[in-house]
Write a structure and sequence with these properties.
The complex is a heterotrimer of chains A (275), B (335) and C (271). Chain A is built from 13 helices and no strands. With 275 residues, chain A is an all-alpha fold. Chain A starts with 15 loop residues before the first helix and ends with a helix. Chain B starts with a strand and ends in an 11-residue tail after the last helix. Classes of the chains: A mainly alpha (275), B alpha/beta (335), C mainly alpha (271).
Chain lengths: 275, 335, 271
């Protein structure tokens, strides 16, 4: 028999275990030193590559008026910087634990289980966020990316955070689907490719054909990458910050609601079936 | 005739020293420190064809490292080894033809498919002639009762059924030697008995040499006339199980029920192990004192109503050797 | 051992039998992965189309040319995924100890690693062949005896180049616990470096793509030959596009030498 915290007197909430989960996750990530070097290496090579691609395209064609060559290279570099933390599936532990059945033991612990996943994922993200420092320095020194005014930078940071939350809930939602079907890796990869393309991580959405643009804004992916990036390069002017970030917030609320419903239904299933 | 000869077998591992905490982890990104760990330290033994030997030792004693060297997975740091005339790490594939391996915690069966399919693949890998394969299959099915679940996906089998499948899988190609690494771990009594029966019969009927590592000393008592004990990479005993019992099982326990409770129990030559009401347990070394003499001494001092003697079981003996080390007892010489 | 080849053929047949049975056992799963393959290639081609609808020429290559360039890579890559994707699972087997099992069996270790059954199915290859035929027609490539003779060995050579990379990364797992990140980098780099004509890159990158990690031989040189495009600037004549099979064999041979080296270390140092 496995019980949930629901319907019982909850013990006093303590932050400490969650801080500990996050710390453990950071230490875990740090043991894979090879990953650290490859992450930075991959970043450098990919920016270098994208710079060559855009340079070739701009050299042989009429440049789009919205983005100069330098702006689009900056866009790509910042997109890849964001990717260092955005591409992490913070809650994949949920999927893994559902797969091997060890989730049942988490329900026995005196913790709020989704918070555990959130803490674990945050630890992992924080460790990778440290890598942003050298990667950003490289981007500044080697690729001379554009640095906007402090106010724009602050707006970008806020929008980046909102985009991160959209990504977090999207991942959580997908991992929750593992309550019902065990093979979700393929679905997650499909979502990753769609995010790369329709989130504007690879190609700025403003370069898409007009009919595709309408369709894209009905999907959550643009809220993850495109909005902060377009704020960074100034395509979204300050007058439209409220509207753009408001849309990001709407996506956060929608995805948070859906994933809460899924978590509730899913964890009830675990209780009923006993894992 | 010796089928396995290990001479001064030594294996040294290099291990990374991890420092605790995030600071340590960050430092480890740039520099690493290593330490040497001697897993196997000058091990010597020989096995005759058709022997059934228990290779015992606590966790980390070097059991599985030895097995990995014998099976050709690892190259020893120094020393020499020959298995059925072949140096395993030099001619790994040739050695592989001669051996079968069962890792108790790791199956070689394909999870999603029935046993039949795994067996067919193994038949192809070892190139077992079709009629020999069918013969073996029939024989193993008879002992292990495989037919019942032969066409069920392995993931739906119980642990006991799966282990039976794994045993048959390891024996399909008539190996001269089988290495069984913790074969009965986690099994229930019935399954354990089936596996033990299988090991005995394979050894007796086919003359297969068997090396068994286990933590379950009941396996040893039931199966292996000879045991090799290893601790901290060294062989600390090699000989007949009976000799282990006589040499290390020197302490017996006399259980005395007194007619009336004595205030203090003091018997020369015996040590009071425990006492509960009228019953006391006296431990004595049978080399120094016979049971009869001890009983006489007890009766001279106290009125008693009953006595019984507990012989040390193999579990106790081995535990004592692990804990106390081998310096207290005589070290066995290779037979 | 002289019997090696006949025995390997027997094992290989069983391997495919198990693959197909396992795939049938998990039909829904198979369909989801097929959808993934479809979206993966679909979104890649869509990205090319989006870029080229805004910038009509990439150093003289149109979308039609680029579709053909992509399709050659896709077939070679799909062939590799069908025959050799199991090589990518070696690091995981080293980590969980399953790799030792291969060492106690009387067959070549790498062959056994390749023939480790799982859920492999030639679906991507079928999709790739259809895409290739469509792209060949769309790009207006002249299909003659030369084309039909050379395309199969070129595709096989491309798959071998992929195998070489895969094997080199998996071999690194003998030294490093986790090579997932390294593999991810190569997957991404291959994906991007094979997408565009290499003339857009600087000379040093072109040299690396030609002589170090010969991705350019998977699709660029063959496509340049069949589409009659200009020189690469590396002084290689167009006919270099037909060298892919030889390059693939040499590259895999080098990767195999590295593999043997790593395997010896694994058995010597242990873990």
């Amino acid at each position: 028999m496995i019980g949930t915290a629901e319907g019982r007197r909850r013990p006093r909430f303590r932050l400490e275990p969650y801080v500990e989960f996050a710390r453990t996750a950071m230490a875990r990530e740090a043991t894979y030193r090879f990953d650290v070097f490859t992450t930075i290496g991959s970043f450098v090579v990919r920016v270098y590559l994208l710079r060559m691609v855009w340079t070739a395209l701009y050299a042989h064609n009429a440049a789009p008026h919205e983005l100069s060559r330098h702006a689009i290279i900056t866009y790509s570099a910042v997109a890849l910087l964001m990717g260092i933390v955005m591409d992490i599936d913070q809650t994949r532990a949920l999927k893994d634990k559902l797969h091997d059945g060890s989730i049942a033991t988490d329900f026995l612990k005196p913790i709020i289980v989704p918070f555990y996943f959130f803490a674990d994922g945050t630890g992992e993200v924080l460790f990778h966020a440290v890598l942003l420092i050298p990667a950003t320095l490289i981007a500044l020194l080697i690729f001379h990316i554009i640095v906007p005014a402090p106010a724009v930078l602050a707006a970008f940071a806020l929008s980046f955070f909102l985009g991160y939350m959209v990504g977090f809930f999207l991942n959580f939602l997908l991992n929750c689907s593992a309550f019902w079907t065990l093979e979700i890796s393929a679905v997650q990869l499909i979502v990753t490719w769609l995010t790369d393309l329709f989130g504007g991580e690879l190609i700025p959405l403003i370069l898409f054909p007009a009919f595709l643009q309408n369709f894209i804004y009905a999907l959550p992916f643009a809220a993850m990458f495109s909005t902060p990036l377009l704020i960074y390069v100034g395509v979204i002017p300050p007058s439209r910050y409220l509207e753009s970030m408001g849309l990001q917030l709407v996506w956060i609320v929608v995805l948070a609601l859906v994933s809460t419903v899924m978590w509730r239904a899913g964890s009830r299933r675990i209780v009923v079936q006993g894992g | 005739m010796a089928i396995i000869e290990a001479t001064d077998l030594t294996k040294v591992f290099r291990r990374i020293v991890r420092r605790p905490g995030i600071g340590g982890a960050v430092r480890a990104l740039f520099s690493r420190e290593y330490e040497d760990k001697v897993a196997v330290d000058g091990v010597n033994f020989t096995l005759a064809e058709g022997e059934l030997v228990g290779y015992l030792g606590p966790n980390g004693a070097g059991k599985s490292t030895t097995i990995k060297i014998l099976t050709g997975i690892l190259v020893p740091t120094s020393g020499s080894v020959r298995v059925a005339g072949v140096v395993p790490y030099q001619r790994r594939q040739e050695n592989a033809e001669n051996i079968g391996v069962v890792f108790g915690q790791r199956s070689q069966l394909y999870w999603d498919l029935p046993l039949r399919e795994s067996f067919e693949l193994l038949r192809a890998i070892y190139d077992v002639p079709r009629n020999r394969y069918l013969e073996n299959l029939a024989h193993f099915s008879a002992i292990l009762d495989l037919e019942r679940f032969f066409d069920t996906p392995v993931r739906q089998l119980s642990l006991g059924e799966r282990m039976r499948g794994d045993f048959a899988a390891a024996m399909l190609h008539d190996p001269k030697i089988v290495y069984l690494d913790e074969p009965t771990i986690g099994l229930d009594v019935v399954a354990k008995e089936a596996i033990r029966e299988f090991i005995t019969r394979v050894n007796r009927e086919r003359g297969t040499t068997v090396i068994l590592t286990t933590h379950d000393l009941a396996d040893v008592e039931r199966l292996t006339p000879r045991v090799i004990l290893i601790d901290e990479g060294r062989v600390i005993f090699d000989g007949a199980l009976e000799r282990l019992r006589t040499e290390y099982g020197t302490h017996r326990t006399l259980v005395v029920t007194f007619a009336e409770a004595p205030i203090e129990i003091d018997v020369p030559g015996a040590e009071l192990e425990g006492r509960e009401g009228l019953v006391a347990r006296l431990r004595f070394d049978r080399r120094l004192l016979s049971a009869e003499a001890l009983i006489r001494r007890v009766m001279e001092r106290y009125p008693i109503s009953d006595v019984s003697i507990i012989e040390p079981d193999i579990d106790t003996i081995v535990r004592r050797i692990y804990v106390e080390g081998y310096q207290h007892g005589p070290v066995g010489t290779p037979s | 051992m002289g019997l090696g080849l006949r025995r390997m053929a027997g094992v290989y047949r069983q391997y495919w039998r198990i693959n197909i049975l396992t795939t049938l056992e998990y039909r829904e799963n198979f369909l989801v992965w097929f959808a993934f393959t479809f979206v993966y290639h679909g979104s890649s081609i869509a990205a090319l189309w989006i870029v080229l609808s805004r910038f009509p020429s990439m150093n003289g290559w149109s979308f039609r040319d680029m579709a053909f360039l992509y399709a050659i890579w896709m077939v070679a890559h799909a062939l590799h995924n069908t025959l050799f994707s199991t090589v990518g699972e070696i690091p995981e087997h080293i980590r969980d100890g399953e790799f030792d099992r291969l060492l106690v069996r009387p067959l070549d270790t790498l062959f056994q690693a390749i023939a480790t059954p799982g859920q492999v199915f030639p679906d991507e290859l079928v999709l790739a062949i259809f895409t290739f035929v469509a792209a060949t027609i769309y790009a207006g490539v002249h299909v003659d005896a030369l084309f039909l003779t050379f395309i199969p060995p070129i595709v096989i050579g491309g798959a071998l180049i992929d195998l070489g990379i895969n094997l080199i990364i998996s071999t690194a797992a003998f030294w490093f616990v986790k090579v997932d990140a390294l593999r991810w980098i190569f997957v991404q780099l291959e994906q991007e470096f094979t997408r565009y004509p290499i003339t857009i890159y600087t000379r040093s990158v072109r040299l690396v793509l030609t002589f170090v990690f010969p991705f350019a031989f998977m699709n660029y040189f063959p496509a340049r030959y069949f589409l009659h495009k200009g020189m690469s600037g590396l002084g290689l004549p167009p006919v270099a596009g037909l060298l892919t099979p030889a390059i693939g064999v040499v590259f895999v041979a080098l990767a195999y030498v590295f593999w043997r080296f790593g395997l010896n270390r694994y058995q010597g140092v242990g873990h």
